[in-house]
Amino acid sequence: MYILPLPNSKMAPISIKRILISESVDPCCKKILQENGIQVTEKQNMSKDDLIAEIKDYDGLVVRSATKVTADVINAAGNLKIIGRAGTGVDNVDVDAATIKGIIVMNTPSGNTISAAELTCTLLMSLSRHVPQAAMSMKAGNWDRKKFMGAEMYGKILGIVGLGRIGKEVASRMQSFGMKTIGYDPITPPEVTATWGVEQMSLEQLWPKCDYITVHTPLMPSTAGLLNDTSFAKCKKGVKVVNCARGGIIDEDALLRALESRQCGGAGLDVFVEEPPKNRALVNHPNVISCPHLGASTKEAQARCGQDIALQIVDMVMGKSLVGAVNAQVLASTFTPESHQWIKLGEAIGAALKSCTTSKQPFSQVQIITQGKHCKALDCVLISFIMVGLLSDGSQSCPNLVNSLTLAKESGITVTRNHSEGLTQGACEVEISVNGCSYRATGSVQGGVPVLLELNHSVFRQPVSLTGNLLFFKAVASPPLLPSVTGFLATAGVEMESFSAPAARSGDQWYCVGLSSLLGDLGALKPLVKAAAQVSV
């Protein structure tokens, strides 16, 4: 199991020693990685089989858009810890497969923003004034001014579907032409886009208002075919559309029908469902301006994306920050100094609790209750680390912050969580269920040290420091107990470094002993105790 980097902590960072760059990425990417002690190999134009054979030797993979990082590739990568996409979007990466394997998928969300926005504006203006068609006519020896009568953009309405970084930049630029900008985005709040001069509304309201429509969303089930026969029918006759985002957001067959019926007056397309497109009907249509996916094809964007992905990887490995992780947003919380001990607490509680379950059967339910402001701020990362501790068993599944909740779900484990502001200090209680039996542990951070306060209803007189080698055992409270355990440890050649007793003095109780090293055989303890477990944290 590897643990993601935490500055000034004892947790082992991700070890990124070798990275494969499988496409043409700006040379600054390789230079930055090498300057930070990472070996880099560049191999372009590999087939899928070549990539599968090659990837097993690398800790990281950097791609652009041509390399298809499929589940087969990911499953062949025994050491892979990060996939970096030098560009926006991760359509060419099987993120689900990577997540299950605990591999971080990262992109450069702002690297090509300006270039993509500028190309969008270029296509909008070209549609308005028929610039490419007029240029081709001139090259053919013609002088036909009437044929290419255009329209001003001033006063026209531009609908922007997707108001992220690129949508915002498009709005800013087209407003300078005097266009009114309206838009739709399910995430960005309307009050935020209003400050950019973009009025938000529903798609049903947007379609009939627009003279021009441009889309800037990721391709996903909810956005595939967003502009289709039904939505085109609701638009103004002659509406012009632009897609510099992802092929498939505009239904290509519906677009062709809209162009033929003149419901759509023109289209600017930089992306296609199939690239390069084998069906040339759209490309060859006289009212379509098409480009071979040039959104990020500027020197500046390529340099920026190459630099960004290299710096993001280096910063993550060095424990400085996390930017661009699409399947591990929870990791961002691990880079704040105040989070380190709480993170250690989560994993240690999970590991300690797992060690104390007598059943070999997998647990079915995990209930996590957090209290206090510290735990609230770290809710997701704390829960993920608890699951890392609970799921770690030395197998090849290698749970980590990226995949622990996914692995739990796939294993049929139900995870529930609740939070209350009851304790200012902060505490975390974890209860797991195995075959109808429950096991519970409560911990906190005191004096900057993660501690165990309670184990299976046994409240310790002094909090147990969750560090080093720990032996937990359940026994009937009695005066001879401590000498007997001490004698057993001495016989085994193991030193007792600490001893934590429960506050209760009668009945079955849990105790904790700090050891110089783990015991080789817990079975020999059976005559002295009712249950025993050990863990190294």
UniProtKB/TrEMBL annotation:
Catalytic activity, reaction form: (2R)-3-phosphoglycerate + NAD(+) = 3-phosphooxypyruvate + NADH + H(+)
Entry's Gene Ontology molecular function annotations: NAD binding; phosphoglycerate dehydrogenase activity
Occurrences of domain D-3-phosphoglycerate dehydrogenase ASB (ranges): 341-447
Signal sequence annotation: none
D-isomer specific 2-hydroxyacid dehydrogenase catalytic domain: residues covered: 19-327
Keyword Oxidoreductase: yes
Pathway: Amino-acid biosynthesis; L-serine biosynthesis; L-serine from 3-phospho-D-glycerate: step 1/3
The EC number(s) this enzyme carries: 1.1.1.95
Ranges where the D-isomer specific 2-hydroxyacid dehydrogenase NAD-binding domain occurs: 122-295
GO biological process, one term: L-serine biosynthetic process
Database matches in Pfam families: 2-Hacid_dh, 2-Hacid_dh_C, PGDH_inter
Keywords: Acetylation, Amino-acid biosynthesis, NAD, Oxidoreductase, Phosphoprotein, Serine biosynthesis
Listed CDD domains: PGDH_4
Assembly information from the UniProt record: Homotetramer.
Protein family per UniProt: Belongs to the D-isomer specific 2-hydroxyacid dehydrogenase family.
NCBIfam families: PGDH (TIGR01327)
Name this protein carries in UniProt: D-3-phosphoglycerate dehydrogenase
Organism: Salmo trutta (Brown trout)
Gene expressing this chain: PHGDH
